[in-house]
Specification:
261 residues, alpha+beta, single chain
């Protein structure tokens, strides 16, 4: 059976956006893998002694359609794409599944604008064979562009944007604290998180996007930025029960709140 390749970028489907003149061109790349015994056994188990691929019922093994549907922040369908390229593939090609690509164009989309307006689209991708859904993947997607230009700064949606960035260390139990930490970051006035590692769990990124928090790589050449917790002079205590003095300092600098400390 063919399914989305969980080890590939995006867990099997990756996307990026190009913004220009009120339009958003969104490119999708779909990565597929063979599941079950066929995948674990390897292609050599399906070869004859002469080194030729064994004949198999390929149509039953290959997806007929990969269907991608996009929904706007209000749940209205805005785009649908279908890929049919795997039907009729040969036995040998089955083990060399190439990424599938497609794109769609949205006119005047609702842009994700960090904490100011963290609007998210929803993407649903399905692999369908003989009218049966073989695998499904859903995820939130921000329509936006991010770019850092040396000596010019950071740009969000092609406009200069000031990052209020915080260093963030992920422990094994980061799931336990993530919701609380993101609420504290919004209260702080932060809009960017620089983690010390990037987890594979998509929940981390989706939760950050929902709060309008940008995930960005920590660059060593940048000036020292505050640490959320741990180390010297953290913003909050390790148990997240106390906001430290430095928290109120940055809150006064970054947020629109009236700070009395």
């Amino acid at each position: 059976m063919i399914q989305f390749d969980k080890e590939a970028p995006g867990g099997g489907i990756d996307a990026y956006t190009v913004l220009e003149n009120g339009k958003a061109e969104i490119y999708f790349t779909v990565y597929l893998a063979e599941s079950g015994e066929d995948k674990n056994g390897g292609a050599e188990n399906h070869m004859t002694q002469e080194g030729k691929p064994k004949e198999r019922e390929i149509e039953a093994q290959c997806p007929t359609t990969v269907e991608i549907t996009m929904f706007d922040p209000k749940g209205k369908e805005t785009a649908r794409m279908c890929l049919h390229s795997l039907s009729g593939a040969s036995s040998q090609e089955l083990f060399l599944l190439e990424p599938l690509t497609t794109r769609t164009l949205l006119i005047y989309p609702q842009l994700w604008q960090s904490v100011n307006n963290p609007l998210l689209y929803r993407v649903r991708a399905q692999i369908i064979a003989k009218e049966t859904v073989m695998d499904v993947k859903e995820f939130s997607y921000p329509i936006c562009s991010m770019r850092s230009i040396r000596d010019k700064g950071f740009f969000l949606n092609q406009k200069a944007f000031t990052l209020h960035a915080v260093q963030y260390s992920l422990t094994k139990d980061w799931h336990k604290y993530l919701e609380k930490d993101l609420d504290l970051l919004v209260e702080l006035g932060a809009n960017c998180l620089c983690p010390d590692r990037f987890p594979k769990d998509s929940m981390f990124y989706e939760k950050c996007l929902e709060k309008g928090i940008i995930i960005w790589k920590l660059i060593s050449e940048e000036p020292a930025m505050p640490k959320f917790w741990g180390g010297d002079k953290p913003l909050v205590s390790v148990d997240r029960l106390r906001r430290q003095d430095l928290f109120y300092y940055y809150q006064a600098c970054w947020s629109n709140r009236e700070v009395l400390h």
